[in-house]
TrEMBL record:
PANTHER family: CHAPERONIN. Keywords: ATP-binding, Chaperone, Nucleotide-binding. The lineage of its organism: Archaea, Methanobacteriati, Methanobacteriota, Stenosarchaea group, Halobacteria. Residues 9-30 are annotated as: Disordered. This is Thermosome subunit.
Length: 518
């Protein structure tokens, strides 16, 4: 080779290796975790996020904060993905997962400084993760998941979040009612619950609608806006004059030819309208455009037509039992659904169509109100989280004590089992337990307590009573029994939080080479 250098990477590429790469990644991950840490708990603070275009989001929801942040560092993005995964899987606990992931990285950094190999850290973390799942399963409450308990779970998820002037108790009742209505033999069909927001009224006007809401008005001004026991149809195509499937040119040489062509189009459109009328349809939803002539005929005969999208079609099918026809000519009597009522209401400049008491009865909507868009946006997030945690409690394993009580039990269990782990891996197991302590410690700090004293008191109370959590009281917090005070979380939220946090942390710890192209 004659001593000639061999260039494998582009000369403009940047490469960071060894401890520098590990340090850079861990620092980035910890920074993202710290950005949401102050939002944890009932007295957590909000973040104001302002986009380049000036859009403002005010929230303390971890997933929303991390999603709105402009994160560039790849390791930091992994922590953001932790919150995204948590949100997707169970709908709550996003801040918990992100904070835990950051602390696992912090503990791993100390172990790396002590020359513990990354592979040993990963093995220890996964051993501790298994112990964490065991502890969560042991502390699970052996109680029936009745409505009262589910309302407690819903209220716990709302604690410290913005609900406007409506109480968490009332929203919790609405949430549980919604979940119960879509709870069948195969479990809760979460997709059949929609949260629809509308500004212009106080949050206390929020209510549950047994059906679906469509943000459209009839396509013709003379169409009726209220129906009782209507027959409903849905067409998945435009209702207009059909175009030829091939390029063709027509020669119109006289007025008679023109009139004949116009008459043919009119007859085609009239035929569509008459077909709908012959089927006895009262309300027609169309995923496409409705020709003016068709709309006029339908309006004259007391039929309302709405131009909507495919998503609304799916919701309407679940609610009313209709089948979506490929086109108006394919629409048959068997495709028609029904509802108890349909009404169009105006809110400011917006029209909303309520389709209630559908024959299929498989869809419900939480109609959330708020005085401003910021209020309704946050209320939508709060309700979404509450619906998710109640669903998770019913479908994925029950509930555990909240307020940091589960984390104290998990850390204690891991420490007690760590002695059975041989070699340096034991150090990683103990580090995992120390990392879990960050959650009750952060809860105490955000509540106004001294975090170190609170952690010591929590451990002592847990040793003597078997359960201990941090309960917000006035301007500070107290150590008490979260179960008695109604602070509960789904098992699935805790299991997913430790799982996703551990996976992200171990993935980052194993990276010792970062290559980036210019």
């Amino acid at each position: 080779m004659g001593g000639q250098p061999m260039f494998i990477l582009n000369e403009d590429s940047e490469r960071t290796q060894g401890k520098d790469a590990q340090s850079s990644n861990i620092t980035a991950g910890k920074a993202v975790s710290e950005s949401v840490r102050t939002t944890l708990g009932p007295r957590g603070m909000d973040k104001m996020l302002v986009s380049d275009s000036g859009d403002v989001v005010i929230t303390n929801d971890g997933a929303t904060i991390l999603d709105e942040m402009d994160i560039e560092h790849p390791a930091a993005q992994m922590i953001s993905e932790v919150a995204e995964t948590q949100e997707t899987e169970v709908g709550d606990g996003t801040t918990t997962a992100a904070v835990l992931a950051g602390e696992l990285l912090s503990q791993a950094e100390d172990l790396l400084d002590d020359d513990v190999h990354p592979t040993t850290i990963v093995e220890g973390y996964y051993a501790a993760l298994s112990m964490a799942h065991e502890a969560i399963d042991e502390i699970k409450l052996d109680e029936e998941l009745d409505d009262d308990l589910l309302e407690t779970v819903a209220r716990s998820s709302m604690t410290g979040k913005g609900t406007g002037d409506v109480s968490a108790e009332r929203l919790a009742e609405t949430v549980v009612d919604a979940v119960r209505r879509v709870d069948g033999d195969s479990g809760v069909v979460r997709d059949n619950i929609t949260v629809y927001t509308q500004t212009g009224s106080s949050s206390s006007a929020t209510r549950l609608v047994d059906g679906v809401l469509v943000d459209e008005e009839p396509v013709h001004d003379n169409m009726p806006t209220s129906f009782e026991d209507p027959q409903i149809a849905f067409v998945n195509d435009d209702i207009e004059v059909q175009e030829a499937s091939i390029d063709a040119e027509y020669n119109v040489s006289s007025v008679d030819d023109l009139n004949t062509a116009i008459e043919a189009e009119e007859n085609e459109l009239r035929g569509y309208a008459e077909h709908v009328l012959d089927l006895g349809v009262d309300v027609l939803f169309v995923d496409g455009d409705v020709a003016d002539q068709v709309a006029a005929i339908l309006a004259k005969n007391g039929v309302a037509a709405f131009e909507v999208g495919d998503d609304e079609g799916e919701e309407l099918a679940h609610a009313t039992g209709l089948s979506r026809a490929a086109g108006v000519k394919e629409l048959e009597a068997d495709d028609i659904g029904s509802a108890g009522s349909i009404s169009v209401e105006k809110f400011g400049d917006d029209y909303v169509t309520f389709v209630e008491d559908g024959a299929a009865g498989q869809s419900v909507t939480v109609f959330a109100r708020g005085g401003t868009e910021h209020v309704t946006d946050e209320l939508e997030r709060v309700l979404g989280d509450a619906l998710d945690v109640v669903t998770a409690a019913l479908d994925k394993g029950g509930v555990v004590p909240g307020a940091g009580a589960t984390e104290i039990a998990v850390a204690d269990h891991i420490r007690s089992e760590a002695a059975s782990v041989e070699g340096r891996k034991q150090l990683a197991v103990e580090a995992f337990a120390d990392a879990v302590d960050v959650l009750p410690r952060t809860l105490a700090e955000n509540t106004g307590m001294d975090p170190i004293d609170a952690l010591v008191d929590l451990r002592a109370e847990y040793e003597s009573e078997g359960i201990a959590g941090i309960i917000s009281e006035g301007q500070t917090g107290v150590i008490d029994d979260p179960v008695e005070l109604g602070v509960l979380d789904p098992v699935a939220v805790k299991d997913e939080a430790v799982e996703s946090a551990a996976e992200a942390a171990t993935m980052i710890v194993r990276i010792d080479d970062v290559i980036s192209a210019s």
